[in-house]
Amino acid sequence: MSPLLKEFLNKRVVVVTTEGQCVCATLEGFDNSTNLLISQVKDRVSGEKIASSYVLRGSQIVCCGLLENSADSDIELASQGVESLKDTRNYVPNEHVVWQKVWAAKQQQQQQNQKQQHTLNASSASHEK
To answer: Which CATH code is given to the segment(s) 2-80?
Structure first.
């Protein structure tokens, strides 16, 4: 996506983040990791000013597109009944419980492998005598 962003420099863009936030801003710069430097940042839905300048990590960005009609950027979408975007991050409820079970199963498997190895070593030692 980075080479395409060159055409958007110093223009108004719409950026959708992984948290579901949609902002309008002026694209001031970017790098190869698609980290964006944006200014005059406003929430696309409410129209409220978020920051005068902002750096977004490339891993936080879902998409970035040119805002074709800058007059549209001043329209408050909340007044038109537009819903906010949902969070796009992968979220697993009680993820720590899942990982505890995985860890316990792995520990149990290692103990079984050690017992089998010990049994094999003991039987091969008795055969050598």
So the answer is: 2.30.30.100
